[in-house]
Amino acid sequence: MKDQAGTRPDVSAELGALRARIDSIDDTLLALISERAALAQQVGHAKQGERIYRPEREAQIVRRLRESNPGPLSGETVERLIREIMSACRAVEEVTRVAYLGPAGTFSEQAVHKQFGHEVDALAEADIDACFHAVETGRADFAVVPVENSTDGAVGRTLDLVVASPLSICGEVMLPIHQTLMRKHGDLDGIRRVYGHAQSLAQCQHWLSRHLPDAERVSVVSNSEGARRAAAEPVAATLGSEAAAALYGLSVVAARVEDEASNTTRFLVLGAHDAAPSGRDKTSLVMGAKNQPGAVVKLLQPLADAGVSMSKFESRPARSGTWEYLFFVVCEGHRKDARLAAALAEIDSRAAFLKILGSYPAASA
Ligand SMILES: O=C(O)C(=O)C[C@]1(C(=O)O)C=C[C@@H](O)C=C1
């Protein structure tokens, strides 16, 4: 015999018992989360006007819980949950305002929520320059901007701005990027135009050549702008995040159309200060070499001598118009670590120009 919901009585008794235990756990969870929020509020008062957002403390909490995670939830899920709880606790202290490359529905917006959770004022800006400007003028507390993609390389505008800006890097966010092809109605048939941000188009070029060889590719300022246009043009489709499909009333034609399955974008979090040491940090710097043979090697030698690993080395024109270059380096460690501090002092004495862009917690793998 089955009950009204079509469940056998013994199954429904077992379900009822399990759900009663889940209810009781939810009560305990809510009581504990409320207690945690009240403690965060006290921490906020104890800080007496000091900065509320502490990226190093949040990174330590995330790492500790990922390490002690008993399962069955994945490490990523545990991180997402605890970051959301910290977001809510932080908001009882003060709501954090975060500028990002808008409009809504961009991967940058996803990066904001991955780092800061959803209890933030996420401010959509027109371009990367405006994100920097928002923090520099005090309209936002932080900016989240893309700096490099694993398929398509560096975001030059971010690198240029970070050299001149008084802001410091206080965090990094690694976001797996899955591109979705979407349009108003229909499948691949009849698509004559594909919109997308230049980076998105570049990340999907082989897929597009294979599946839509005759469609025109049109680069737009953001994937959300592409979604807005595709919503109005029956023969057009756009690349972008799956979130944009729901936001702009489009249907998904094909998911995960990026050429590299591990396609990831690294974002920087910029604020008025960098972060205190968290135990597993990175330091970003930019330097200019004197125009002499072997100058770049001499600049990097102190890092090698100190046994400091470098995770990134990127050169970029110094924009002086004279074939001079700036070298961007990301190395392991915090600028306050004795070994790295000594190496940086040595580089400073050798370089034509050195700027430490900030030390910050390394993102989880
Ligand atoms: O420990 C602090 O300084 C807090 O404000 C608490 C807390 C948290 O929820 O754990 C919240 C915000 C900070 O960014 C770091 C941690």
Task: Name some characteristics of this structure.
365 residues, alpha/beta, Chorismate Mutase Domain, subunit A, D-Maltodextrin-Binding Protein, domain 2, 4 domains, six-stranded mixed sheet, 12 helices, 42% helix, binds prephenic acid
Net shape: globular
Q: Taking all residues together, what is the mean pLDDT?
A: 93
Query: From N to C, what is the helix and strand string?
Result: HHHEHEHEEHEEEHHEHEHEEEHEEHE
Fraction of residues in β-strands? 25-35%
Domain Chorismate mutase: 9-97
Main location: cytoplasm
Pathway: Metabolic intermediate biosynthesis; prephenate biosynthesis; prephenate from chorismate: step 1/1; Amino-acid biosynthesis; L-phenylalanine biosynthesis; phenylpyruvate from prephenate: step 1/1
Function: Catalyzes the Claisen rearrangement of chorismate to prephenate and the decarboxylation/dehydration of prephenate to phenylpyruvate.
Describe this structure in words.
It is a single chain. With 365 residues, the chain is of the alpha/beta class. The chain has 4 domains: 10-87, Chorismate Mutase Domain, subunit A, CATH 1.20.59.10; 95-177 and 264-270, D-Maltodextrin-Binding Protein, domain 2, CATH 3.40.190.10; 182-254, Periplasmic binding protein-like II (D-Maltodextrin-Binding Protein, domain 2), CATH 3.40.190; 275-361, ACT domain (Alpha-Beta Plaits), CATH 3.30.70.260. It has helices spanning 9-46, 55-67, 75-93, 107-116, 128-136, 156-164, 198-203, 205-211, 223-232, 242-248, 295-305, 338-350; strands at 96-101, 120-125, 142-149, 153-154, 168-176, 180-183, 193-196, 216-219, 236-240, 251-254, 264-271, 281-288, 310-317, 325-332, 353-361. Strands 1, 2, 3, 4, 5 and 11 form a 6-stranded mixed sheet that branches. A 5-stranded mixed sheet has the order 8-7-9-6-10. A 4-stranded antiparallel sheet has the order 13-14-12-15, with helices on both faces. Strand 1, helix 4 and strand 2 form a beta-alpha-beta unit. Helix 1 (9-46) crosses helix 3 (75-93), helix 2 packs antiparallel against helix 3 and helix 11 (295-305) packs antiparallel against helix 12. The chain is globular and about 85 Å long. 37% of the residues are buried. The mean pLDDT is 93. The structure holds prephenic acid. Prephenic acid (PRE) is lined by residues 40, 43, 52-54, 57-58, 61, 86, 89-90, 93.
